[in-house]
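Data availability excerpt. The first of two example chains:
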Amino acid sequence: MTRGFVLAGLVISGASYFLYMSALAQGQNAGQAPRAPGTNMSVAYPARPKAPQEVLDRGKSVYGVHCAFCHGSDAAGGEAGPNLLRSTVVLEDQDGELIMPIVHGARVDNGMPQIPIEDAQVKDIAAWLHSLRVESRTDPNAEKINILIGDARAGEAYFQKTCAGCHSVTGDLKDFGAKFPDPKTLQQTWLLPGGGGGRRRSGPTPGIQVPPTTVTVTQANGQMVEGELSSIDDFAVSLVEPDGTYRTFARNGDQPAVELHDPLALHRKLFKTYQDKDIHDLTAYLTTIK
């Protein structure tokens, strides 16, 4: 692993699309979302009967502890997770039945960690999500939710087992808790150093250094061109050479040969293994590093 702060990183892309496909796969006959009159289209933001306030309060609280660090305290997208207010499955869902499989691990292989909460709690979260409206933004009360529910000693043991091979609380992570006194900011930072993801792409996070992703392009004549990756898809790869020269190469199958050097690659892989408890325990431990 590359030195420097690269504990974990993930852009959970396409999650809303997966939710939509899950909804289709499970069928809509047992509980369709309201349809626009005279059409077969879902109402964009269907009006729903308001759940009892105690249900909404429970759902908001559970969401704040287990979900807000990825999807934002207002469910409009966070540093790692997508906007849930615009998720087709959240709109199609009636009582948590489409959200539940994802919470319980259906997307672990795609970077969505399993969250060990009860079905009743998922239903409470669903009720709270259904009560939100697109125009609603950051809730001024959301910051009062305490996410420091983990065991710092268990977090230290997890750090020593999983992270200490590359990171040191007396070296690259020295005073980490002091640099990020807000637990939510600290948690989002170690989950996704350098920003990027759901709602926006931010620049480098102050207080940490994440090397950029670089790429080596080997042309048919054997000439190699290296630089910082700008963009890549099936048709082209673009990079910026050390002298600032911007270059784009057309791709045709495996030509030219392209080799990516992503300093967060191992951490993206690690993200798939996190349990919810691991995240809370490690956050609790890192807040003590001052």
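And the second chain:
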Amino acid sequence: MNIVIASGKGGTGKTTVATNLAWWAARQGLRVVYADCDVEEPNGHLFLKPELSWNRAVLQFFPEVDRGKCDRCGLCGQICQFSAIALLGEKVVVFPELCHACGGCVLVCPPQAIQEKADDLGMVEGGHSGALEFVQGRLKVGALRSAPVVHEVKAALPSADLQILDAPPGTSCPVVETIRGADFVVLVTEPTPFGLHDLKLAVEMVKVLKTRCGVVVNRALAGRTEVRQFCQQARLPILAEIPDDMSIAQAYAEGKLVVEALPWYRRTFARLLRQMAQAAAPEMLLRKIIAALDSIEHSSLENRPRSPIAVEDAPPICYLDFRSKIADPASKGTNPGRVP
């Protein structure tokens, strides 16, 4: 099951959700791989502290013109949809930063005056954090196109019960590349005007990609209901609400995982994993996940400090039973797991 943790804006707690969910799921006996696709500024390693054991370069190809062979026909500029190569006067000019490495200019050049040249765009590296497999990408300083590095991170993922991809923030091309092909997307937001605004943008993006999704509200506050109202209107399931808890912020500042430093929050991530599995997991994997979660979901929380903002104990307000609705022939093809 391929799960993407995304957000419409930075700073909502996306990496907090992704790293804690991955680490905790691996502790339950599931085969889990965590992939940091925020290649411009990966930070999942700060919390998971993996032992890296391999790396490989990501190469970017762009055209190089042999001016001695070039007959200046201009076909290369005509086929390029990104204006990465153009005939200007009597000279063919290449703009590598615009090239998408499609190879079209090489194919249409009659005198075969164009060859592809490789340049280092970044790297993909990986290893282990205990039982958890770890993969991340790093964009080279000064490079402009991060989507190819994201693509290589996804290509490097080993098979697993659960692949958790930590997406870049926003709704740009690297995010789309991360989400493409995912079984389920978790949109992490916060109960602020900016958080709600960018959540709406992210929902529109997921709608275009036709991917099932749900919402996690981080730093949730009692009385702030705008995000809840939007999710109800859009028929989006709120999978979990993580309270605005100073102890979480302290653990984050110290580079600690919440589920390790504050074990009473494990039930929150257990519920989140269960609901994602019910939405997208194959039947065999769903049974395996539910069996692993039963003990933690029903465990006692007697050692948990009491908090006036214990919102994560409340059931999600608009959680939909994805699997039963999908399987119900009376639903007339309606898939509540998809954004309408």
